[in-house]
Amino acid sequence: MTISVDGREVAVKGPKGELTLTVAKPIEVAVEENQVLVSRPDDERESRSLHGLTRTLINNNIIGVTQGYTKGLEVVGTGYRVAQKGSSVEFALGFSHPVLIDPPAGITLTVEGNNKLTVSGIDKQAVGEAAANIRKIRKPEPYKGKGVRYAGEIVRRKAGKSGK
C-alpha cells in the first residue's frame, strides 16, 4: 500500500484500488516513516473537528483499499425476493412490477439465496449510500416486519388493531 500527499490531495493506493481525498484548509497531512501524520495549526473548535474527521477519512480509505467494505441486506416478507440479473439486481417487493437496481460505479452487488444481498466496494461512504438507497425502496414496516432491512437490524414491532 502506498500513500502520497500532493498539496491538499491525499492518494491511497492498495491491492483493491485507489482512493483520493481532498483535505480541508487548516489541516496539514504528512507521511513520515510509514506513518500518516495529521496536524492542526491551532486549537480552534473547527480545527479540532476537522482534525479528527480528516484522520478518520484517511483511515477509512486505507482500510478500503486493503480489505474493502461490505454491507448486508435481507429481504423479509412472503413473496419478497431478490435475484441477480448480470451485474444488476432485480427485486420482487409486492409492487405491480419488479424493481431493477443497477450498481453505481465501484460498487458490487451479490445475491446469496433469494433473500440476502451483499453490497461491497472500497469506498465506505459509497457502500453505505448504495445500501441505504436499496433499503429505501421498501423499508421494513412495523406491523409485520416486511421489507428490505440491514443484516442484523432489529425492527420494532407494533401491536396493530385490537378487537372488541
TrEMBL record:
Transmembrane segments: none
Keyword Manganese: no
Residue intervals of the Large ribosomal subunit protein uL6 alpha-beta domain: 2-68, 76-150
Entry GO CC: ribosome
Record's keyword terms, sorted: Ribonucleoprotein, Ribosomal protein, RNA-binding, rRNA-binding
Job of this protein: This protein binds to the 23S rRNA, and is important in its secondary structure. It is located near the subunit interface in the base of the L7/L12 stalk, and near the tRNA binding site of the peptidyltransferase center.
NCBIfam families per UniProt: L6_bact (TIGR03654)
Similarity annotation: Belongs to the universal ribosomal protein uL6 family.
PANTHER family assigned to the protein according to its UniProt record, in alphabetical order: 60S/50S RIBOSOMAL PROTEIN L6/L9 (PTHR11655), LARGE RIBOSOMAL SUBUNIT PROTEIN UL6M (PTHR11655:SF14)
UniProt name for this protein: 50S ribosomal protein L6
Species of origin: Microbacterium phyllosphaerae
